Amino acid sequence: MRAPLGNFTDAWPVADKLGLLAPPVAAALRGPVPADGVVYVDSDPDDADTARFGEVHGIPPERSANCVVVAGRRGQGTTLAACVVLAHTRADVNRTVRRELGVRKASFAPVETAVGESGMEYGGITPVGLPESWPLLVDAAVADTPYAVIGSGRRRGKLLVPGALLARLPGARVLEGLGVPVARTGD
Known about the structure:
- By secondary structure, the protein is of the alpha+beta class.
- It has six helices and eleven strands.
- A hairpin with a 2-residue loop joins strand 3 and strand 4.
């Protein structure tokens, strides 16, 4: 099989490689998330970080999506949520995420919390297979992408997923302006 984007030696329909995914990701692709059109590509765990992965495999940041876990607080309660934005942007946690979650304060969740609650590895957290109780906020630009590279739940391997499928994941809310341009320094 040929990957729909990037430079990969091998690519497979994800249904053929479920054993290589984090358990919650594999379970989602066996159940509520349609695996049709989802492609698995193998990669070195040392290349898992978005910039390095893009460099090695010829993936521009506009075609790579990051999934970040945020913790929203209101009073004593905390709500965990996931935000999916293209790699050349960052999640607008202080405005868009706070407003959407109805919380007073929002920040990136501690790594231990994100990993422990998602059942996925740091550097591989993906929107596929997250806990159903979590709001899933997807930037409209991600939803409009023909294919986006996302994590597999592990540092090894990535999924190439149609943006439209990401917009239809359980609990997904597509938002304009969730991803804001990254401020560049030194220009």
